[in-house]
């Protein structure tokens, strides 16, 4: 691998077209417009789209009745979110808050993962085809779009070889950690703006660029990303900070020459982003149903297991779901497999001396690998006695209090994707035998280095090709719900109380009643994060006596002895929820739930395919 393993031994600068200039090689041939994609670009995007379809293939077999086998609750929550976006547009309601879940208190959508940047623009699709179709379309599309923008960033700013950019883009869009989150968490695969943000940050202050234009573009991108995924934006900002510091340490004069333009553009972009998002951010932390931190700092213990780095991920062709039970305490944010780790180490060893980009990648890998370990070092599923870096970080630091250490490893995954592109690009520009100046030495090296290098990269990434995400069938809502049979029983301003009441643990099917009817009636409980009496964030609505009684009865499978106090509490809870009707549909615990509700509320009516208690 030669010394030109990065096109420019400085921060990524202008596009490849700009570097050649008009009339390259004295031909006078006009330069192709930058906005016009080449055939290789279209082929790359087409391949990414096919990969996106492959990942979601099991959903399309029965899109209306299938959810993620691994995270069915999260899957249903995002279906509910797409319905929320459509409801907000259709009724011209404030999308930052919803009263259709957790009635009567509602849900602060900015304080939850609401994906408003996607659910609102896709509202017409949801209204036409339903949230299940929108979910499957968006999930595959977000994966492909992330790969495509990564390809654009790499091919225009970092590597010359389109094949190198394709490989890097494919990994950035479909890395094992990203595909893992595709199981019910489309917000973590919605990274299509992040490569554009990174490219813009690294261009700030470059010679010949307008700091005003770059600042405005950066501000618009950051503002929109806030409505897609704030956590991934924070991770990207931390990664950019490390990149800028690493660049400045290695090229202090060049960094100083760009400092004024960089600072001006960054300040303008930050001010614009803050101006555009000031009210939503204020609403997130000060609006109704906002909260401060999570109770107990529950995320801080979720660090990456060291063995996970060399393990094949569950949803790849080489993955084994059984391994996850051993070391998969939380999430699979790395899970590169040992071949890729070995190839990455060799590539860094060969490139790091001669390529600034490779050295910056090495810094990113080291910093964020260490940071992802968490408060205690874990090895092969067991906690060691060695403290991790998060053992020294207070749980209540602003922003940090909501972070999960293992997700910092997603920056490592991004760095590995860039490294793959750099390595392929270096191989592509290794001189073959009998060509160029000094062809004897370079040619002899190229004769074996190219095929060996290409084979090593292929063998490292092919086991990580994603498989279709596992899906399971879920029963549709009762006909009483989908046909609108509930309408005569639920007047305006009142709620429909489904049994079991939706929560983060129970009531997945009943949460979908709301999503699949377009939020036409409000429900109590739900799947969200809201405040407890102390203002700390907790998962789901605080349980009321009746919801607690329902859940404990479901778990035990038998109705406990009831008292008049239980009946009084049930009446009080129904008044609090502003209930008009209590509905029990088909459920694995239907018999015991009907017995419980009958003991609390009296005999039910059988209406269509549900049991009904009018209250």
Summarize the structure.
Among the domains are: about 190-290, no CATH class; about 480-615, no CATH class. Helices cover about 50% and strands about 5% of the residues. A hairpin with a 2-residue loop joins strand 4 (about 375-380) and strand 5.
What's the structural blueprint in terms of helices and strands?
Blueprint: H1 16-20, H2 39-55, H3 57-60, E1 66-68, H4 72-91, E2 97-98, E3 107-108, H5 116-119, H6 123-129, H7 131-157, H8 162-174, H9 176-181, H10 194-203, H11 211-226, H12 230-250, H13 252-286, H14 321-327, H15 338-351, H16 356-371, E4 376-379, E5 382-387, H17 409-428, H18 439-461, E6 471-473, H19 479-482, E7 495-499, H20 508-516, E8 529-531, E9 537-539, H21 545-556, H22 564-576, E10 579-584, H23 590-601, E11 605-607, E12 610-614
Parallel strand pairs: 7-10
Antiparallel strand pairs: 1-6, 2-3, 4-5, 8-9, 10-12, 11-12
Task: Give an overview in words.
The structure is a single chain. The chain is of the alpha+beta class. Among the domains are: 191-290, no CATH class; 479-614, no CATH class. Helix content is 51%, strand content 7%. The chain has 23 helices and twelve strands. The protein has helices spanning 16-20, 39-55, 57-60, 72-91, 116-119, 123-129, 131-157, 162-174, 176-181, 194-203, 211-226, 230-250, 252-286, 321-327, 338-351, 356-371, 409-428, 439-461, 479-482, 508-516, 545-556, 564-576, 590-601, and strands at residues 66-68, 97-98, 107-108, 376-379, 382-387, 471-473, 495-499, 529-531, 537-539, 579-584, 605-607, 610-614. A four-stranded mixed beta sheet has the order 7-10-12-11, covered by helices on one side. Strand 11 (605-607) and strand 12 (610-614) form a beta hairpin. Helix 4 packs parallel to helix 20 and helix 10 (194-203) packs antiparallel against helix 11 (211-226). The chain is elongated, with a radius of gyration of 27 Å. Mean pLDDT is 89; it is low at 1-33.
């Amino acid at each position: 691998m030669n010394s030109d393993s990065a096109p420019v031994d400085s921060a990524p600068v202008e596009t490849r077209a700009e570097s050649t200039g008009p009339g390259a090689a004295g031909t006078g041939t006009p330069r192709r417009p930058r906005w016009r994609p080449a055939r290789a670009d279209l082929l790359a995007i087409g391949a990414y789209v096919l990969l996106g379809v492959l990942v979601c293939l099991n959903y399309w077999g029965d899109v209306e009745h299938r959810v993620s086998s691994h995270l069915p609750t999260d899957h249903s929550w995002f279906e509910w979110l797409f319905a929320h976006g459509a409801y907000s547009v259709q009724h011209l309601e404030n999308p930052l808050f919803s009263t259709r879940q957790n009635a009567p208190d509602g849900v602060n959508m900015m304080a939850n993962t609401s994906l408003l940047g996607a659910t609102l623009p896709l509202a017409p699709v949801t209204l036409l085809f339903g949230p299940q179709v929108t979910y499957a379309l968006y999930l595959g599309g977000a994966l492909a779009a992330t790969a495509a923008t990564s390809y654009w960033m790499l091919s225009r700013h970092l590597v010359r070889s389109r094949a190198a950019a394709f490989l890097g883009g494919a990994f950035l869009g479909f890395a094992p950690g990203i595909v893992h989150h595709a199981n019910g968490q489309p917000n973590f695969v919605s990274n299509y703006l992040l490569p554009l943000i990174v490219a813009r940050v690294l261009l700030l202050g470059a010679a010949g660029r307008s700091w005003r234009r770059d600042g405005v573009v950066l501000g618009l991108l950051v503002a929109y990303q806030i409505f897609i995924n704030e956590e991934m934006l924070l991770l990207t900002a931390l990664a950019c900070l490390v990149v800028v510091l690493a660049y400045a340490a290695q090229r202090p004069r060049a960094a100083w020459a760009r400092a004024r333009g960089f600072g001006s553009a960054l300040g303008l972009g930050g001010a614009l982003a803050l101006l555009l998002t000031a009210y939503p951010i204020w609403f997130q932390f000060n609006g109704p149903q906002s909260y401060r931190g999570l109770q107990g700092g529950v995320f801080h213990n979720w660090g990456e297991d060291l063995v996970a780095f060399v393990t094949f991920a569950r949803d790849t062709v080489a993955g084994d779901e059984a391994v996850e039970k051993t070391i998969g305490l939380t999430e699979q944010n790395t899970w590169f497999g040992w071949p890729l780790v070995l190839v990455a180490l060799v590539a860094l060893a060969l490139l790091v001396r001669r390529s600034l980009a490779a050295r910056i990648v090495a810094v990113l890998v080291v910093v964020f690998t260490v940071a992802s370990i968490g408060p205690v070092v874990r090895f092969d599923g067991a906690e060691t006695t060695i403290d991790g870096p998060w053992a020294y970080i207070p749980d209540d630091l602003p922003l940090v209090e909501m972070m999960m250490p293992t997700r910092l490893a997603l920056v490592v995954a991004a760095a590995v994707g860039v490294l793959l592109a750099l390595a392929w690009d270096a191989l592509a520009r290794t001189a073959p035998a009998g060509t160029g100046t000094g062809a004897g030495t370079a040619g002899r090296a190229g004769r074996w280095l190219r095929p060996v290098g290409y084979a090593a990269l292929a063998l490292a990434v092919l086991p990580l090709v994603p498989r279709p995400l596992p899906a399971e069938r879920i029963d549709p809502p009762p006909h009483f719900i989908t046909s609108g049979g509930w309408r005569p029983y639920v007047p305006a301003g009142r709620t429909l109380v489904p049994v079991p009441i939706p929560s983060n643990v129970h009531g997945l099917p009943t949460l979908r009643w709301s999503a699949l009817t377009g939020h036409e009636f409000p429900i109590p409980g739900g799947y969200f994060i809201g405040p407890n009496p102390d203002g700390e964030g907790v998962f789901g609505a605080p349980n009321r006596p009746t919801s607690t009684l329902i859940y404990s009865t479901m778990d035990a499978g038998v109705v406990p002895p009831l008292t008049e106090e239980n009946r009084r509490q049930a009446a009080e809870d129904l008044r609090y929820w502003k209930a008009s009707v209590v509905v029990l549909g088909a459920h694995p615990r239907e018999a015991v739930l009907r017995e419980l509700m009958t003991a609390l509320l009296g005999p039910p009516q059988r209406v269509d395919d549900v049991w009904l208690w009018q209250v």
